[in-house]
């Protein structure tokens, strides 16, 4: 998944199901079903991956860019007993609507677009709930990069969402992330020549190149009462990880059930790196969530 650049790259909705796709029975661990659901009067196309024995469910939420269904991640999660809905981003693949992003000269982290994408994730959650058995494990949202702003908004819209997993999700405002990204210029060796103190000062004081209302995930996260896990790479040059962790610690001090793990040698794409550690950590964390639910 190419979600490195967040900006420069990077209401309840009635569910309408189209014809289901063919069930795949050739895999020993899961079957798949294509579905269509609606969000803000737009049809979105996705695929549900059903393990034979499921202990939790999750909706995958895109990062920036023109992203279709995240099939490889869905397969990996389904093999580990997690039911998955992954869908084509609006305006991409078989999904309707208009794609918003720099490639077409639009601002994909404008508050209005983030809210629309959050509505899509909310509608996807309702679509998946319609297909789950009456007694099912916890339902969550899992996302990447830009989804760090989208998922809290979506979770606030849907009270059935009980957990969220964010790979390299920023816990800073959209404008703060841009200041950091412009400072690093995406250079992989940025941290060889710069300090955390220098980066924080730049994020704090650098004038904004764009003028639009910022989205602050901290305000939404402070109001949520669900569990969350963030997985960060210590060499990330797209989001300010140190500042994001500081904000999570502040939220944890307020009693929020938010966890994080830092992988010092990884960069921004923690969910799609050569290292299997972040994804394995996420799967184990979701299993623990399910065990906690069973004990209640």
Automatic annotation (TrEMBL):
<keyword id="KW-0732">Signal</keyword>
<feature type="signal peptide">
    <location>
        <begin position="1"/>
        <end position="20"/>
    </location>
</feature>
<dbReference type="InterPro" id="IPR053145">
    <property type="entry name" value="AB_hydrolase_Est10"/>
</dbReference>
<dbReference type="InterPro" id="IPR022742">
    <property type="entry name" value="Hydrolase_4"/>
</dbReference>
<protein>
    <recommendedName>
        <fullName>Serine aminopeptidase S33 domain-containing protein</fullName>
    </recommendedName>
</protein>
<feature type="domain" description="Serine aminopeptidase S33">
    <location>
        <begin position="55"/>
        <end position="175"/>
    </location>
</feature>
<dbReference type="InterPro" id="IPR029058">
    <property type="entry name" value="AB_hydrolase_fold"/>
</dbReference>
<dbReference type="Pfam" id="PF12146">
    <property type="entry name" value="Hydrolase_4"/>
</dbReference>
């Amino acid at each position: 998944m190419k979600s490195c650049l967040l900006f420069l790259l990077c209401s309840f909705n009635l569910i309408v199901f189209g014809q289901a796709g063919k069930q795949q029975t050739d895999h020993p661990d899961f079957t798949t079903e294509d579905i269509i659901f609606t969000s803000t009067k737009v049809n979105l196309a996705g695929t549900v991956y059903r393990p034979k024995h499921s202990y939790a469910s999750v909706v995958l939420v895109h990062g920036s860019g023109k992203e279709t269904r995240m099939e490889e991640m869905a397969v990996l999660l389904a093999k580990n007993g997690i039911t998955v809905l992954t869908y084509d981003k609006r305006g991409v693949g078989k999904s309707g609507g208009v794609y918003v992003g720099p490639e077409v000269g639009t601002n994909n982290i404008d508050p209005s677009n983030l809210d629309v994408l959050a509505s899509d994730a909310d509608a996807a959650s309702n679509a998946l709930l319609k297909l789950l058995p009456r007694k099912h494990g916890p339902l969550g949202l899992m996302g990447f990069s830009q989804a760090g702003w989208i998922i809290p908004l979506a979770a606030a819209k849907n009270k059935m969402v009980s957990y969220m997993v964010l790979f390299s999700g920023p816990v800073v405002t959209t404008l703060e992330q841009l200041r950091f990204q412009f400072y690093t210029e995406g250079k992989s060796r940025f941290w060889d020549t710069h300090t955390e103190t220098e980066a924080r000062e730049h994020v704090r004081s650098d004038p904004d190149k764009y003028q639009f209302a910022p989205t602050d995930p901290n305000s939404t996260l402070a109001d949520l009462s669900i569990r969350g896990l963030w997985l960060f790479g210590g060499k990330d040059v797209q989001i300010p990880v140190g500042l994001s962790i500081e904000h999570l610690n502040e939220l944890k001090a307020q009693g929020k059930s938010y966890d994080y793990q830092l992988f010092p040698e990884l960069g921004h794409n923690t969910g799609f790196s050569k290292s299997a550690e972040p994804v394995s950590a996420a799967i184990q964390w979701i299993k623990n969530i399910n065990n906690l639910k069973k004990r209640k």
